[in-house]
Amino acid sequence: MKSSDTIETYLEQQGVSYEIILHQPASTLEEVAKAANVDLPQIVRSTILNTDAGMLMLVLPANHLVDFSELKYRFGDSLELTPVDEVAGLFTDCHAKGIPPLAGYYGLPVAVDKKVAEMDEIYFQADMQDSLLHMSGDDFRRLYTDAQWGNFSQPSSLLASEEGYEFILPEDEGEGHTISDLLPSDDIKKRIEKVRQMPAMPEMANQLLLLKNNPNSDADDLAQIVALDPSLSAQVVHYARSAFYGYRGEINSVKDATVRVLGFDMVMNMAMGLAMGKSFHIPADGPLGLSAFWRHAIFSATISQALCALIPKSVRPKPDLAYLAALLHNFGYLLMGHLLQPEFFLLNKTVEANPDVPVTLIEKRLLGVGHTQIGTWLMNAWDMPEEVVVTMAEHHNECYQGDHANYVNLVLLVDCLLKTRGLGDAAYPEVPASTLNALGLDLEKVDTLVKHILKDRAGLDAIARQLVT
User: Fold this and answer.
1) What are the pLDDT digits (tens) for 431-469?
2) Residue-wise pLDDT tens digits, 277-312
3) Backbone φ, ψ for residue 117 (5° rounding)
């Protein structure tokens, strides 16, 4: 399965500029990156898959793992990795584990992970183990104008250090298992992969979204819709009265909260997010239950909004959208609990039994799909703002540098800050230096602001409790 031309000739025929980087022979991509003095995330690789329609090449960053649940959602349940010996027999010009990510050269259909679209410089192995080809991201993408693009992989950092964790199932009575040995059962995988019909957006949220898109709407229109749910009205008023805003006047209505304190966009996004969440009913207990969800969501949204004031204008998120993105970023847990009750029950209990294991690792190994992915399906189905969708998909990915990265970095930062205070599902409490740098923030100033907000911890807890009942 190789044309008579060399890869270099193929690239020249496509009008693509490239250079060859020589390095000491290496067997793994990690070793190649080190030998060539290239960052591993700048290298792309290919994987060959068998589908109902035939063979498919998948192109993804070298530091990512294939996300089979998303691929099967797109290409069908029968999709599987092509056996190594079969690959070796077909691609005789190169190592079976190092097929160059050039589908056109081999005449193969191709799926490309969207994260490749964000890479400025790209390196990949050709047909030798002592060299890399280097080209600009734009040139590489010119080779894939007809490709299928999608979120077909996840950062391997989400599954980092898995051998160091002992994973205990609730019914095991203390018996430990290495998490690398625990794979999702076929029954669970099939149930999740067959989830296609997303729930409809709640009526109130839909009304608010229509109002949001009406340029002639005002505070009176907004108040009329929110007033249809007395508990939601009370939560908006309570938030406007909180010590965080320090407003000394009377706030007795949604309109007062909108005009005097919060502003139209803030109340709109707050009410829309709360209305969405209230339509899903899952168990209240456990680290992923409704109580923990709303507590983390309210704290995360409040802190994210406040931190916007410290971020330089050049990268500053819109405070109201930052609030909404943070409020909804773990919405996938609600959808799991709503659509997949037995699976969610098991996940909730397993996370509770393994407090030191990152939840992203547990859900991937236990269910084969993460809350970020299933939540993103829903946000796309509901046509939510791109900032919200991207934040939901990438908020555990400290390497993300694509569109709306400022929202992703902000929520990731807040998750880390809350983890140190016993809240949330961040893998680690340490704030990545790259995240702070990307937002132009000083950690000391951030901590000072967070401490100020948490002086009203009781008030935020009260709002969260109202949302559970």
Assistant:
1) 888 899 999 999 999 999 999 888 888 888 888 887 887
2) 877 878 888 889 999 999 999 999 999 999 999 999
3) -70, -15
Task: Please state, in angstroms and rounded to a whole number, the distance separating the CA atoms of residues 134 and 179.
Answer: 37
The CA distance from 308 to 322, in Å, is: 8
DSSP state of 163: G
The whole-angstrom separation of Cα 45 and Cα 65 is 11
Whole-prediction pTM value? 0.66
Q: Which CATH number fits domain 203-468: 1.25.40.10, 3.40.50.150, 1.10.10.10, 1.10.3210.10?
A: 1.10.3210.10
CB 254 within 8 A of CB 239: no
Pairing of strands 110-113, 148-150: parallel
The 8 Å CB, 24+ separation contacts for 229-234 are 229/204, 229/275, 229/278, 231/466, 232/204, 232/271, 232/274, 232/275, 232/278, 234/466
The Cα angle at residue 88 between residues 84 and 93, in degrees rounded to 5: 145
Measured CA to CA, the distance from residue 219 to residue 257 in angstroms comes to 10
